[in-house]
């Protein structure tokens, strides 16, 4: 027995531009019933899930990919926690908060993480799928009788649960609060810890500035400090790593872990697997169909949870939610693989001085078929180095060979343009992309085609990032320079983009420079690496390109963090601080695993 989920993307559905194929070709409609009709109010298609036979014809014939029809196992019909309306997103099951533990939520974007956060914090009352006649609290409590969540919902009903939420979009805080970072943290500080948090999160130099003047990373850490300083039973952190470098991410992790040590319930949504591994005691996987439905798995240990997610298979529940597993390659490209004279660009020692900042880059080269990774703390000049090589910024000393063409994807993306995605891609490509070879080579693997008719200003952060990466790669150049391509992408997209970029560079004899703070992504994507050291905001110094294992070892040592390979998935894993493996590796000077 199965039941059906029919979801319509209202933004993609454009009845005025199509021939109403979904209505015309639906076999249930042809038999005389009204399975798919045009809603009189919204003027969009509407699907009757009760009489839909799940044939999927409407999905195939819709020219705008606006319809999703999914057949679900019948047992899930009894686990529906919330549905927003007809043909809209629905959530099945809920994660369980645990006192004194950090529970990591791991899954794709569009799986209902914000719905989970709103329900567990008491901002949204679960309707058990009955959006027309929602149940009262007594019925909800009866539904959860015999579970740990019953107690949680009883406290919500009696207004005894206070939740502290660090939202995903930190820029909205700067718009909503007119004052300095210090004033914001002190406003919420109920635990008397503002001074300690400012120090732990490295905010000493930024808290006296107005929020409107701060960088994304500073705003993110101020938001973490404000959320952590409240005295509540329950804490949520939604993507706390965004905009922060690896050093700042470990500071954020320590602050979040300190709340669990106080006996609080903590939940974290995070797409940086290294940070999630480092931070979480347990993992709950969210899977399903983005923007259609989300299902929450049973609780798993961190190691098992991350491996299950990468496998795409939940053994305890016997559910496969992705048709392929993500694998990690053990081999690391050696410098010997590149032929002499295969340099795309060679640069001498480069220096650049600003009134209060200077950067020095040791000589190096980028070769054909190679991805050069650049890692280091924020404000050391990584982007400046990229701009000097790209010819966007002129060095004070040293000259870069000007004969090569470079495409540059900036760190901060503009989404205020009201043009269709396809027009933007046509411009980058120099000719229409629809039906082209580039569509097959770049846009299909990155799953961009579904976004063609969307306006750039309506894209989510992750969609915008993928369109920006695709626009960069469509340009006919020798070298692609990508600044933070992982920002706003979920774990699946991060791994997919990293693997695609590496394959693209190797297959077509191109070259790329990538700056990113996601250690796992950089380990996956880079052939050689440049490490930035120095004093943030004052002076940065970049090494010459190093073999990946030497560079990672040097960088992990500066973080006081050690990596091992997971014996099952072969992914890089962080050793828990002070564990036996951590001590053994560090004492031998081997912070990065040996292949």
Q: What features would you highlight for this structure?
A:
globular, alpha/beta, 595 residues, nine-stranded mixed beta sheet, 21 helices, Alpha-Beta Plaits, Rossmann fold, iron ion binding, ribosomal small subunit binding, 20% strand, single chain, 3 domains
Provide a concise account of the structure shown:
The chain is α/β, with parallel strands linked by helices.
| Main sheet record | 9 strands, mixed
CA-based shape: globular
What's the pLDDT, averaged over the residues?
89
Distance between the termini: 48 Å
CATH topology of the largest domain: Rossmann fold
Pfam families: ABC_tran, Fer4, Fer4_RLI
Protein name: ABC transporter related
GO biological process, one term: translational initiation
GO molecular function, one term: ATP hydrolysis activity
Secondary structure: elements and pairs:
Elements (H helix, E strand, L loop, with lengths): L1 E7 L12 H5 L1 H4 L5 E3 L6 E3 L9 H5 L5 E7 L6 E4 L6 E3 L9 E6 L5 H8 L16 H7 L4 H10 L5 E4 L4 H6 L4 H8 L5 H7 L15 H14 L4 E5 L7 H16 L3 E5 L3 H7 L2 E8 L3 E4 L3 E2 H10 L1 E2 L4 E2 L22 E5 L2 E4 L4 E4 L2 E4 L3 E5 L6 H9 L15 E4 L11 H9 L7 H7 L17 H14 L4 E5 L7 H17 L3 E5 L3 H7 L2 E8 L3 E4 L3 E2 H12 L3 E3 L6 E3 L5 H8 L8
Report on the structure:
Helix 8 packs parallel to helix 10, helix 15 (421-429) packs parallel to helix 17 (461-474) and helix 18 runs parallel beside helix 19 (519-525). The strands form 7 sheets. Strands 5, 6, 7, 8, 9, 10, 11, 12 and 13 form a 9-stranded mixed sheet that branches. Strands 17, 18, 20, 21, 22, 23, 24, 25 and 26 form a 9-stranded mixed sheet that branches. The chain has a two-stranded antiparallel sheet with strand order 1-4. The radius of gyration is 25 Å and the shape is globular. The chain is an alpha/beta fold. It has 3 domains: 2-83, Alpha-Beta Plaits (2-Layer Sandwich), CATH 3.30.70.20; 90-121 and 161-320, Rossmann fold, CATH 3.40.50; 335-559, P-loop containing nucleotide triphosphate hydrolases (Rossmann fold, 3-Layer(aba) Sandwich). This is ABC transporter related. Keywords: ATP-binding, Nucleotide-binding. GO terms for molecular function: ATP binding; ATP hydrolysis activity; iron ion binding; oxidoreductase activity; ribosomal small subunit binding.
């Amino acid at each position: 027995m199965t039941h059906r989920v029919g979801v319509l993307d209202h933004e993609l559905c454009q009845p005025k531009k199509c021939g109403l194929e979904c209505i015309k070709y639906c076999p249930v409609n042809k038999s005389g019933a009204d399975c798919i009709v045009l809603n009189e109010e919204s003027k969009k298609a509407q699907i009757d899930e009760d009489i839909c036979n799940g044939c999927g014809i409407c999905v195939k014939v819709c020219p705008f990919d606006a319809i999703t029809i999914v057949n679900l196992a019948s047992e899930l019909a009894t686990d529906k926690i919330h549905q927003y309306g007809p043909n809209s997103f629905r959530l099945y099951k809920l994660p369980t908060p645990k006192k004194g533990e950090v529970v990591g939520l791991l899954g794709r974007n569009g799986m209902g993480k914000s719905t989970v956060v709103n329900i567990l914090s008491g901002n949204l009352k679960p309707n058990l799928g009955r959006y027309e006649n929602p149940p009262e609290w007594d019925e909800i409590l009866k539904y959860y009788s015999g579970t740990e969540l019953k107690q949680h919902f009883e406290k919500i009903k009696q207004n005894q649960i206070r939740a502290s939420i660090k939202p995903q979009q930190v820029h909205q805080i700067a718009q909503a609060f007119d004052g300095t970072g210090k004033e914001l943290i002190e406003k919420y500080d109920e635990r008397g810890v503002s001074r300690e948090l400012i120090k732990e999160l490295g905010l000493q130099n930024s808290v006296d500035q107005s929020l409107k003047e701060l960088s994304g990373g500073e705003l993110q850490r101020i938001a973490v400090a404000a959320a952590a300083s409240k005295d509540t039973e329950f804490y949520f952190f939604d993507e706390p790593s965004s905009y922060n470098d690896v050093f700042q991410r470990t500071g954020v992790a320590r602050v979040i872990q300190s709340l669990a040590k106080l006996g609080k319930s903590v939940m974290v949504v995070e797409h940086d697997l290294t940070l999630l591994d480092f931070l979480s005691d347990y993992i709950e996987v969210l899977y399903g169909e983005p923007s259609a439905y989300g299902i929450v798995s049973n609780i798993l240990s961190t190691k098992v949870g991350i491996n299950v997610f990468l496998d795409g298979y939940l053994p305890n529940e016997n559910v496969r939610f992705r048709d392929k597993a993500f694998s990690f390659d053990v081999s690391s490209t050696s410098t010997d693989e590149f032929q002499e004279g295969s340099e795309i660009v060679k640069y001498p020692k480069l220096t650049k001085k600003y009134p209060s900042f200077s950067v020095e880059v040791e000589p190096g080269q980028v070769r054909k078929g190679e991805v050069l990774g650049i890692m280091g703390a924020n404000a050391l000049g990584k982007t400046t180095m990229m701009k000097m090589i790209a010819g966007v910024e002129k060095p004070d000393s040293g000259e870069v060979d000007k004969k090569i063409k470079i495409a540059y994807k900036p760190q901060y993306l503009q989404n205020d343009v009201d043009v269709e995605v396809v027009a933007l891609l046509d411009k980058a490509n120099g000719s229409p992309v629809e039906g082209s070879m580039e569509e097959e080579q770049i846009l299909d693997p990155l799953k961009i085609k579904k976004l063609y008719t969307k306006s750039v200003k309506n894209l989510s952060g992750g969609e915008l990032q993928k369109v920006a990466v695709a626009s960069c790669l469509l340009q006919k150049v020798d070298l692609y320079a990508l600044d933070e391509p992982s920002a706003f992408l979920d774990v699946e997209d991060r791994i997919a983009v990293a693997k695609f970029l590496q394959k693209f560079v190797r297959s077509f004899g191109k070259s790329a420079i990538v700056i990113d703070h996601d250690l796992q992504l950089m380990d996956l994507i880079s052939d050689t690496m440049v490490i930035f050291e120095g004093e943030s905001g004052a002076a940065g110094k970049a090494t010459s390109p190093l073999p990946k294992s030497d560079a990672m070892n040097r960088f992990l040592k500066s973080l006081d963090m050690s990596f091992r390979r997971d014996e099952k998935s072969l992914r890089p894993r962080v050793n828990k601080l002070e564990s036996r493996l951590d001590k053994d590796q560090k004492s031998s000077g081997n912070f990065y695993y040996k292949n």
